[in-house]
């Protein structure tokens, strides 16, 4: 079956957390030990912004954060359990598409209010991962037992428009030569790989270029809040394509809270070697389509490494 030409997609690129940037500080105000500080230490490693258990060989960022929040709550004298889901960002609700996250605390005594203490000198985790500005310094307290991200969450790029062209997935054959010091021992070899073309037209600059939404006009055109730095194609390019790293694509359900599961068609892609220049140069994937408002077309050919997507 041929893939739908027009669909909302979501791209998940790798987020690497190092030892210097792995700490959150929370206080719970409704548990057995009220106002107790919980030190949350995220295990250093490379993650993807998934909610459930990741496919073999990959790690789920939100599942890891939930695990560490639960452990920190127990260590502080409570036994709350936390849940992270994708929702519309509160300040960027005009964009929608479940591009933010919500953290819910299910306390041992029912509803447990909690606060993320960004002002703590010990907080080091990048706030953009949780859907807050990179420079977030003010503490964030829950409404009842829920904190909803103000901004789009870092780690996921969701195009604001449907794909204008996608696919179909096709197989290409590649001819190469085996190496060897003696030329006569070199042999021609054939291999094949699956590729898919992605094209998105009329994407505003506020969904492409880093820090562009720190200018109100660009943020407004993008349907995002001022200083919302979570949904840039440039970050997908830098941490995914330019790094030659695996990128997950959720097809058709990208504008919803769908996660990476076998039931939700997804693919693992990289930039195809036929367009290797697009790995090195962000601008080579872009073409200005409208000067008024600054809109671009994004176009790239992907090598499909793994696919559970039902469409060719």
Helix content: 10-25%
Strand content: 25-35%
Mean pLDDT value? 88
**Silhouette:** globular
**Which regions have little confidence, pLDDT < 50, spanning 5+ residues?**
180-187
Integer count of domains: 2
Order of helices and strands: EEEEEHEEEEEEEEEEHHEEHEE
Question: End-to-end distance, in Å?
Answer: 6 Å
SS-based class: mainly beta
> Quick one: how many beta strands?
19
Largest sheet: 9 strands, antiparallel
| Structural Rg | 21 Å
Number of helices: 4
Descriptive report:
This protein has 312 residues and is mainly beta. The chain has 2 domains: 12-156, no CATH class; 165-307, no CATH class. The chain is built from 4 helices and 19 strands. The strands form 4 sheets. Strands 1, 12, 13, 14, 15, 16, 17, 18 and 19 form a 9-stranded antiparallel β-sheet that branches. A 4-stranded antiparallel β-sheet has the order 4-3-9-10, with helices on one face. Strands 6, 7, 8 and 11 form a 4-stranded antiparallel β-sheet that branches. A hairpin with a 7-residue loop joins strand 3 and strand 4. The model is unreliable at 180-187 (pLDDT under 50).
């Amino acid at each position: 079956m041929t893939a739908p030409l027009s669909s909302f997609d979501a791209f998940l690129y790798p987020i690497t957390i190092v030892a210097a940037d792995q700490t959150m500080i929370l206080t719970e105000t409704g548990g057995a030990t009220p106002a107790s500080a919980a030190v949350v230490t995220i295990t250093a490693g490379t993650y993807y912004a998934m909610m459930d258990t990741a496919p073999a060989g990959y790690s789920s960022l939100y599942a890891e954060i939930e695990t560490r929040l639960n452990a920190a709550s127990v260590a502080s004298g409570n036994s709350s359990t936390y849940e992270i889901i994708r929702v519309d960002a509160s300040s960027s609700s005009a964009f929608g598409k479940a591009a933010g996250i919500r953290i819910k605390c299910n306390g041992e005594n029912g509803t447990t209010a909690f606060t993320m203490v960004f002002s703590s000198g010990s907080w080091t985790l990048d706030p953009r991962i949780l859907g807050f500005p990179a420079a977030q310094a003010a503490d964030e307290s829950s409404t009842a037992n829920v904190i909803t991200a103000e901004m789009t969450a870092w780690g996921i790029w969701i195009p604001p428009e449907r794909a204008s062209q996608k696919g179909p997935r096709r197989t290409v054959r590649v001819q190469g030569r085996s190496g060897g010091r003696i030329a006569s021992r070199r042999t021609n070899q054939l291999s094949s790989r699956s590729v898919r073309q992605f094209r998105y037209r009329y994407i505003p600059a506020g969904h492409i270029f880093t820090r562009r939404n720190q200018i109100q006009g660009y943020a407004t055109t993008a349907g995002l809040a001022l200083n919302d730095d979570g949904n840039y194609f440039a970050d997908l390019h830098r941490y995914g394509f330019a790094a030659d790293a695996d990128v997950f694509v959720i097809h058709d359900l990208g504008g919803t809270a769908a996660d990476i599961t076998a039931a939700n068609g997804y693919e693992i892609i990289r930039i195809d070697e036929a367009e290797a220049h697009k790995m090195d140069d962000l601008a080579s994937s872009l073409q200005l389509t409208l000067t008024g408002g600054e809109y671009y077309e994004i176009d790239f050919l992907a090598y499909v490494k793994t696919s559970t997507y039902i469409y060719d």
